Automatic annotation (TrEMBL):
Keywords: Membrane, Transmembrane, Transmembrane helix. InterPro entries: DUF7534. This is Uncharacterized protein. It holds the Pfam family DUF7534. It comes from Halalkalicoccus paucihalophilus. The chain crosses the membrane at residues 25-44.
Length: 57
Protein backbone atom coordinates (compact mmCIF):
# COMPACT_ATOMS: atom_id res chain seq x y z
CA UNK A 1 0.00 0.00 0.00
CA UNK A 2 2.84 2.36 0.85
CA UNK A 3 4.55 1.81 -2.49
CA UNK A 4 1.29 2.50 -4.30
CA UNK A 5 0.72 5.77 -2.44
CA UNK A 6 4.29 6.93 -3.05
CA UNK A 7 4.01 6.07 -6.74
CA UNK A 8 0.74 7.94 -7.15
CA UNK A 9 2.01 10.94 -5.19
CA UNK A 10 5.21 11.12 -7.18
CA UNK A 11 3.33 10.83 -10.48
CA UNK A 12 0.90 13.60 -9.55
CA UNK A 13 3.80 15.76 -8.37
CA UNK A 14 5.62 15.37 -11.68
CA UNK A 15 2.55 16.48 -13.60
CA UNK A 16 1.69 19.49 -11.44
CA UNK A 17 5.08 20.93 -10.44
CA UNK A 18 8.04 22.33 -12.38
CA UNK A 19 10.53 19.71 -13.59
CA UNK A 20 13.57 20.97 -11.67
CA UNK A 21 15.35 18.37 -9.48
CA UNK A 22 15.07 20.31 -6.20
CA UNK A 23 11.28 20.56 -6.40
CA UNK A 24 10.98 16.89 -7.31
CA UNK A 25 13.20 15.92 -4.38
CA UNK A 26 11.15 17.99 -1.93
CA UNK A 27 7.89 16.53 -3.24
CA UNK A 28 9.26 12.99 -3.02
CA UNK A 29 10.35 13.50 0.59
CA UNK A 30 6.97 14.97 1.52
CA UNK A 31 5.07 12.16 -0.21
CA UNK A 32 7.12 9.47 1.54
CA UNK A 33 6.59 11.12 4.93
CA UNK A 34 2.83 11.41 4.33
CA UNK A 35 2.38 7.97 2.74
CA UNK A 36 3.55 6.02 5.78
CA UNK A 37 0.80 7.13 8.21
CA UNK A 38 -1.86 7.16 5.47
CA UNK A 39 -1.06 3.58 4.44
CA UNK A 40 -1.00 2.52 8.11
CA UNK A 41 -4.44 4.06 8.61
CA UNK A 42 -5.82 2.41 5.48
CA UNK A 43 -4.49 -1.05 6.33
CA UNK A 44 -4.69 -1.25 10.13
CA UNK A 45 -7.12 1.50 11.07
CA UNK A 46 -10.11 0.25 9.12
CA UNK A 47 -9.90 2.98 6.50
CA UNK A 48 -9.74 0.55 3.60
CA UNK A 49 -12.89 -1.25 4.78
CA UNK A 50 -14.69 2.09 5.04
CA UNK A 51 -13.61 3.02 1.51
CA UNK A 52 -14.78 -0.34 0.18
CA UNK A 53 -18.12 0.12 1.94
CA UNK A 54 -18.64 3.50 0.32
CA UNK A 55 -17.74 2.20 -3.13
CA UNK A 56 -19.99 -0.83 -2.73
CA UNK A 57 -17.57 -3.76 -3.04
Amino acid sequence: MNVLLVGVGFSVGTMLLPPDPLTQLLVTIAVVILAIPISYWLVYGGGLARLRGRVGN
